[in-house]
Structure formats: C-alpha cells, structure tokens
Amino acid sequence: MFIVAEGKPLGIFPSPFSLGAGILFQFNDRIGLEFANTIQMPFDDSWDGVNQGNNDIYLQHSLGLIMSLKKPKDTDGDGIQDKKDKCPDTPLGVTVDSKGCPMDKDGDTVPDYLDKCPEVPGLVEMNGCADRDKDGVADYLDTCPDVAGQARFSGCPDTDGDGVQDAEDKCPNIAGSDLFKGCPDTDGDGVEDSADKCNDTPKGVKVDATGCTADTDGDGIIDTEDACPNLAGVPANKGCPEVKPEVKQLFQKALQGIQFETGKAVIKPVSYPILDAITKVMVDNPSYKMFIGGHTDDSGNDALNMTLSQNRADAVANYLIGKGVDPLRISATGYGESTPVDTNKTAAGRARNRRVEFNVEFLK
Length: 364
What we know:
This protein is α+β, with helices and mostly antiparallel strands. The protein has four helices and seven strands; from the N terminus they run ββββααβαβαβ. The protein has helices at residues 245-257, 272-284, 302-322, 347-353; strands at residues 2-6, 17-26, 31-41, 58-67, 288-295, 330-334, 355-362.
C-alpha cells in the first residue's frame, strides 16, 4: 500500500492538494499489479478567505500492470534469487530447500548430496552415517554393528588379536595361528597345542603326529640324533645298523687280498674271489654305501703315487659295478702315500701301506 500527497503553498492559503493510496500485488520478481485511489482538491486562486472559488473534490481510480525487464540475480542457479538465498554458493544441481540451502532430510547437519545415509541421522566423520559401536566402521558397512571390531573384518572383532576374527576363531580368547583356525602351536612344531603331547619341543626338531620328537625307524633313537633315521640301528653306531662281524672280517682280508700288477691299476685274477664276496655283501645289504680308498707306499714320485692310487681305487669300483652294484652306492678316492699304516723303511711295512680299504656308510 502507498499514500501520495501533493501541495503547493500560496501565501497563507493552501494550493491545489491531492491525496492517494494504493495496493501492489507482486506475482513474482518481474510482474506485479497496482491498484490506486487518488483524491484531488483544486482550490480556486480567488479565494479570499471569505469567499472561495471552485472547490470541488475529485476521486480517481487507476489499475496498472508493472513489469521489470531485469532478471533477478541467482548466483548458484538453484532457482532462489540471491536476496532470498541463505546459501548462495550451493553446488550446481544440488536439491535445495525454500531458503536455497542443500536439503538435509535427516537433520544430521550433513547435506543430502554429501550424506551416504540421507534417511538416517549420522555423524559428520562417517559421511552422515551412524556408527553404533563406535569402531570407525559405519553401520551400513558393519557386519557386527553392535560390537566394536576392525575394518579388516567388516567391523567384527578379533578379541585375541591373532588375525583371525572371532566368528572363525576356534580359540577366540587365546592368540593362535590361522593354520589352526586361531588356536595356538606354542612350540611351533606344526602340531596344535590341543593335540600336542610334547608342546615344548625345541624349534626345528622333527616331530610325529603327537608333537613329540620323531623316531621314524623305531630304534629308540630320535631322528635328530639318528645318523640313519630310516634304518633301525644301535646307539653305538649313532642309530645306524651295526656292520656284521663277517663283513668286517671280509674287509680286513681285502686290505692285503686285492693285488695289482706292479706299478699298474690292473687287478690280478687272484683278487677276484674277494671282490665277488664284497659284491655279494653289497647286493645283500641295499642300505650300504661303499667307500673305496686306494693307497701306496712312498716309493717313487708323490704325484705319480697319487694318480696310481686313484686309478687302482677306480679299478675296484668298476669291477663291483660290472657285477651289478649301483654306481650311486660306490665312491672311490686315491690317497697316494699320504696315509700310511706302517713304516716305509721295511719291505713288510711298505707292503701293508700298499692297500685298498673298504668302509661302509648307510644310505639315509
């Protein structure tokens, strides 16, 4: 509504006078309708204070359409003009309320366009989602929303901290190994404590199914102390079988019984029966591994003696192989004159030093 009054002083007398009032109907920011009433009182200039001229009063009515050609400013383009927009910098395309601010349907101060849970009040740090157990995993991602847990287990707990979540942990209150579904193996021998009858076994020691030190061959000597863990033996031979007395006698006989042509690695036929007997020992005892050592006296050149001893040891090995002994079970080494068993100053001593030795070890 508006009021208009106009007047012009003329001496002490009033001049023509008008009074108006109106109503403006604003349809939007650019279009409005104005309705106005005006009263005019045109006083005659001949009025002398006693007599007056034409003093008729006029009432005028007017109706007008008001239009603005200037578009109201809306900086963020949300449909709310800046002068009415409480949030004039709202990102383009975001749904806003009547005040021009981003919608926040759940009232958690996180606008809907940033709120991952726009229908449920939540926390700013959870992007508008709730976290009932306060474990840092939003409820909509939390498999265990009422029990504090770990993000790696989708919000579910691992009470003993062993890397196996409680739901899959057979021993949830004792730190264990995922190998045993969260149960412990205290001595680390690969046998779970609940099945381990010897749970203090030293690290690295081979154990059986009960967690106790293994004795594979059952000879009463544990594998870690058994030189032949797969062959039943005796303590005196470190867990390996004892070489039979008759075999030892045969090897002793072979020391001087195997003869070669002088200065050569050619076996004399007189030696064949002993070598055949040794062949039979190897066949009858498949766990034997034979070490053949060739030796000479100190006559002649050292280097030549070393070569001669090696060739003689090889000759014996080849004889046994030729009779069917597995080459992998034979090893031949020449020692020359380096390990005498008697003096080289006598003929008898030199004869003893010229020898072929046989030693047995057992295949592991």
